[in-house]
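Wed. Picked up where I left off yesterday with Glutathione S-transferase. The coffee machine is broken again, so keeping this brief.
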Amino acid sequence: MVFCLSLISEDVVRVAFVAGLYGKSNLDGLMIDQVVDLKEDLLQEEAKTMFGTDESKAEAAKKLPESIYPRIFKILTHCLKQNGAGYLVGNELSLGDLAIYEATQMCFQNNPKFLDDYKDLLTIRSKVESHPGLKEYLQKRKVTPI
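Structure written out below (tokens, as returned):
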């Protein structure tokens, strides 16, 4: 399963490059790759709440808000602040910002108030949701557990 996710992740990066969402420099691309990989790591943790024994799912669900989300969201916030322009890289939306949006989606769906301590992440969510090319899609997108 990890191998398949790796292939998907690489394909997303290729599409983002062609679509102009991969930053302007190699350093931008590296930062985006790190955030995409971090999002994939978080997805692995969130998936544990859906698959396995009832006991393991309950333990995974308990770990998310206690340790996983705070650790990941702190890293994402640091990355955003490092750029200082309100986006992960540069001064416009990139694949990295979309990855941050998706990395916060399950938490936001289940407990939106949890993100109140992560204002920079809420700001990115707002920018993604108001982007003309994404706004309509996100409004019509089917809500899924993960």
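Quick read: The chain has one domain: 2-140.
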